[in-house]
Amino acid sequence: MPDRHGPMRTGRFKVEIDDIEVPGWQSVDIPTRWTEEGEYREGDDPDWEKNIWGQTHFADLEMERGVQPGDTRIFDWAEEVRMGDVDEGRKEVAVVMMDEEGAPQIRWEFQGAWIKVYDPPALDAAADGDVATESITVAFDKMVRIEQ
Length: 148
Hints:
The chain is mainly β.
């Protein structure tokens, strides 16, 4: 019986692009976020400054998937960005983490996402059984986390 009270496992997730599940993802790195720190002091305050927060920044979304025969949707998306197709180049990406039974638990949504780096598979005739993978670095406008 699965442990429903412990930490969640990292291997159960799915990726949706524009509400369509895209299979074959081997790894997804949810972006780090950080907030700048500043100092503030009013004229009649004591001699020390208060720490305040400033602008929040996000790292890029990093994703890797096994190359699927006949499935060029990731390459095509990168081409739309390269060609400057604003309507098709920006997409909505969702990463959904699931529990041991496959029920969605946490959903991260990346709005206004576009491929910043497309890395095609490295091919090696001497490799024995390795999976060909393509990876992408995705920039986005907004990240939202939703408990399911």
